[in-house]
Amino acid sequence: QTAKTQMPEFKLANNQPVLVDKSGKDEMLLALTNFSAFAGIREINNRNNILKSIDDLVLAEVIKQKDFKGATLELFKITPNDVTKINKKFISNLAKIDILDAEKITFQKIFEKHPNDPGLLVCILMQFHELKTGESLHVSPGVPHSYVSGLAIEVMTNSDNVLRMGLTTKPVNVAAALAVVTEAKCEKKLGDKQAGIRRYSPQHAPFQLIELHNAEIELGMGKYDVVLNLDGQLNVSVGGQNYVLEKAQAVLLSSLESKVIVKGHALVARSV
């Protein structure tokens, strides 16, 4: 989970704050390979059809809930033994459930790693996304999400605030996460491409991602730019001085007033 800019105060048992800074985590994921993720709130009828297909009376109170927060709270009231039983029943019924094959495979992967975790059931409450190479997913602060498999680049604001509800060995704080949840949908998008340059500019996000496919671009002034070489050699010219980056190398450009030219196959993450 990610936190909004204005957050309630939560502390751990040792009186340490759960949220370590005042910034919400706005982020965008760009798929470099096929990528599977749960992000955003699933439409309620679709959600309930899946829950009903599990055919377990323990889920009746979850199905009655009209929002993500209410349904999630009911899921976390289920006893550990019942969670394990329902998870197993859900996976055994996957073949009969009307969802994409890719989503079935993704649920199976989660179950194999976390068979006793209620987080598996929380994923039923979220939208499933199968991203192809070059597709992006913008996740605004507070929108619940879980990245499952694939290779991707993630761009985000400068924040270490993460609130988890499961599917992890790291600290979990369901109450804090639900207190800052934003119940919104997510859409995968392909950036606008012209002359070998594809731009990803999420609405209201303080960053932009530019993908170069054997192309050249002159960057305007910005507070921060990170240039990452994806393949072959990459040339970055700063004020006439040339730098050559090998594959997987990156360079950080901070508050430069000099002209910057990037040429090759690269990703440029920019603050805007």
Characterize the structure shown.
The strands form three sheets. Strands 8, 9, 10, 11, 12, 13 and 14 form a seven-stranded antiparallel β-sheet that branches. A four-stranded antiparallel β-sheet has the order 6-1-4-7, with no helix packed on it. A three-stranded antiparallel β-sheet has the order 3-2-5, covered by helices on one side. It is built from seven helices and 14 strands. It is elongated, with a radius of gyration of 21 Å. With 272 residues, the chain is of the alpha+beta class. The longest helix is centred in the first third of the chain and has 13 residues.
CA-atom Rg in angstroms: 21 Å
Q: What general form does the structure show? A: elongated
Main sheet summary? 7 strands, antiparallel
Q: Helical residue percent? A: 10-25%
pLDDT averaged residue by residue: 90
Distance between the termini: 24 Å
Number of strands: 14
Unreliable residue stretches: 1-8
Oligomeric state of the chains?
single chain
Q: Can you write the helix and strand succession as a string?
A: EEHHHHHHEEEEHEEEEEEEE
Tally of DSSP helical segments: 7
Structural class by helix and strand composition? alpha+beta
Residue share in β-strands: 25-35%
